[in-house]
Amino acid sequence: MKIIDSFIKDNDGLLHSTELLLSIIILVFIIGTIANLSDELNEKMLSKEELSSLENIAIATSDYLLNNPGNPEHWERDEGLDNGIVSRNIIPGLAIKKKNIGNGEFYDESGNDEMIMSNAISYNKLMKIKNNYDDLIDRNILNGSFKSSMALYPLNCKIGPIKMGDDLGVNDNVNDNDIATVNRRVQCDFYSSFVVYRFNDLELFGDDYERDEICNHDTNPNLTNHSNDGRSLWLCKNFRVYKKSLEDYNYYLISDESVKYGNFYWILESLNRTNDNKERLNREVIDLNPFFEEDLSNSSNKIYSIHFNVEKDKKEDFRTVLVAIPKNMTNDLIADDELKYDYFNSQNVEFLLKMAYK
Ligand SMILES: [Zn+2]
Questions:
Q1: Coil, helix or strand for 245?
Q2: What are the beta bridge partners of residue 325?
Q3: Which 8-state DSSP code applies to residue 260?
């Protein structure tokens, strides 16, 4: 009685009881919401059989994508893909089908038969999928019945991860337990198909390296001889450049930043315009088009000779490639900070496919 009295009479106590009631109402409301929510979650939770069939579909989809070049052949060249117009006939695949082309034979069409490279995926195809994910994957492959996402995590930390598709488990309110995930270790070619010459002889042969190409500096008495002395090594290579290809490609000498740590020099010359002045190689990106454009002003093509002088003790830091990048792609590469040595090598990557029922 005393308590009730105090409730009725005491303004302060009354206030407290109103607060109590309010908090109970709020609590009931919260519990009710949680109960409803967990009901919904329980309904969404997949049975073992449903999850196992989802996993099977995800495994089959990954295996298909990683082992097939896709249909029709060269589907990635379809111009519609650049404008978001995606034909229903395109069934994308990421596998690389390419001719066996030797070092420096960039424009040689006489390679072996095209063959599918095992465990290697095409970065170019992956980018086409990224830009048209809903149509190419969710519609054309998964028939609109699933949500999915794909990601590539390069083991080389200098290359960032690439993610595409639905934001599974984050924005889509899909329970983590209802997502099937497939993980595969593969090689991605990135931009290695743009490499004209990979100057990796020192890497391949190490201390056994001996220059095998004939260098024009050895036979010309007016030029410094390029035979190896005790402290440095010469690496000399010849390649041909067509004037016409300068309309479509940007030529660059791309080096790893490690070249800054050694004493490395280079000379670029055409055989009828020799040059004996070696220049320090300490820039990661060297644009060669101005040189070729000037030198090819009066001829359709020429053989060029590039010579590298490499400090013997630092030869592991000499990592350089000559690349030819299609002009319509160059600005994108620069904007995305991809004009870097690591992007011109195949890299080990973790491929991840996630799938959920819609
Ligand atoms: Zn030489």
A1: helix
A2: 250
A3: G
CA of 333 to the centre of ligand 1 (A): 31
Q: How many Å lie between the centroid of ligand 1 and the Cα of residue 9?
A: 105
Which amino acid, residue 152?
Answer: L
Residue 73 to residue 337: CA distance in whole angstroms: 30
Global pTM reads 0.80
Is residue 47 a contact partner of residue 54, using CB atoms and an 8 Å limit? no
For residue 297 the two structure tokens come to: 């002003």
Distance 7 CA to ligand 1 centre (A): 102
Which residues, listed in sequence order, are joined to residue 121 by a DSSP beta bridge? 95, 188
Q: Which of 350, 340, 270, 357 is nearest to 66 (CA)?
A: 350
> Same domain, yes or no, for 298 and 239?
yes
- 220 CA from centroid of ligand 1 (Å): 11
Residue 297 carries which side chain, given as an amino acid letter? S
Q: Over the stretch 68-88, which tens digit does the pLDDT of each residue have?
A: 999 998 999 999 999 999 999
Ligand 1 centre to CA of 307 (Å) is 5
Give the pLDDT confidence of 284-335 residue by residue, as tens digits: 999 999 999 999 999 999 999 999 999 999 999 999 999 999 999 999 999 9
Do 302 and 179 belong together in one domain?
A: no
Could you tell me if 252 and 177 lie in one domain? Answer: no
Q: What are phi and psi of 289, to 5 degrees?
A: -60, -40
Hey, which bits of the chain come out as E strands? 70-71, 91-92, 95-98, 115-121, 146-154, 162-165, 180-188, 195-198, 232-242, 249-255, 264-270, 279-280, 285-287, 301-311, 320-326, 347-357
CA–centroid distance, residue 326 to ligand 1 (Å): 29
Whether residue 53 sits in one domain with residue 184: yes
Cα-Cα-Cα-Cα dihedral sign, residues 191, 192, 195, 199: positive
In sequence order, the 6+-apart residues with CB closer than 8 A to the CB of 41 are 175
Query: H/E element holding 66?
Result: helix 48-67
CA proximity to 14, closest of 22, 308, 101, 269: 22
47 phi/psi in degrees, rounded to 5? -75, 165
How far does the centroid of ligand 1 lie from the alpha carbon of residue 237, in Å? 7
Range of the domain at 315: 197-337
Residue 306 is which amino acid? Answer: I
